[in-house]
Amino acid sequence: MNEIDMARQRKAVEGARRRKGLSVFRLKVIGAAFMALSVASTTLVPLLFGEPSADNMTGLTIAVVCEIASWCAVPIYAWLLFDGWRHTRNRARYGMELFVVAALAGPSYDKIMTGHWFDAHTHNPVWGLFFAYIVLVAVDWVARTYSGAVRWVITVALIVAGVLWNMMLQIGVSQRVMYTGVLVLAFVMAFYFLNRHENTMMFTAGLLGAVMCITPGVGVAFLHYRNGELGYSRPWTKWVFYVLYPVMLLLGALV
Fold this sequence. Notes:
Elements: H1 3-20, H2 24-42, H3 44-49, H4 57-70, H5 73-87, H6 91-114, H7 126-145, H8 148-168, E1 173-174, E2 178-179, H9 180-194, H10 198-211, H11 215-223, H12 237-254
Antiparallel strand pairs: 1-2
Helix pairs in contact: 2-4, 2-5, 2-12, 5-7, 5-9, 5-11, 6-7, 6-12, 7-8, 7-9, 8-9, 9-10, 10-11
């Protein structure tokens, strides 16, 4: 076998491997499935198994398991945010789309979590994606504008500001132990700073997920098998995922 044939064979094998991996579409489907578990833990589970409490251990156990499993979605959506940022042709429009989705999801999320259609004490996890996006755009601008110590001082200040905003607004706080907004920001920053070093990036993200209640680390494992392809069969498919979470929450609130 000559060198040309060997090169063609390697290319064919690589192409087959990539097709078998997880495309953006497949990652979004997996993320949506985990996301649905979070909604179900506070809506369907109480309906089917009774209100979770110390007197109803079955309902409590199922609700907790669903909620904890849903945290696998955090690194997946953080990666999709970062990947979308670096490939979008219009970053301002991308940020506005996240803002609209977060705003649409707000009333239903508040209803499920607090019993009121509007409650300023809690905010849905999509706001965590939005704030992470704002920090990401700002950090990248600083990296292109400044250098040396000035760059890193401003960068750290921006990240700390993002963490504080997430904590003060109680974005995506779950079970009083999982601060989804803060974790999303941490994952996005890890992907941004380490994306040129695949193994280091995945190891760091996996370690971060493992420290934060184990299951986000499981979510990182799915990212290891991504193939970099979009995988959409129709151009409008991506818009379905934008409305999916608000629709899930609305159905849950009505239930």
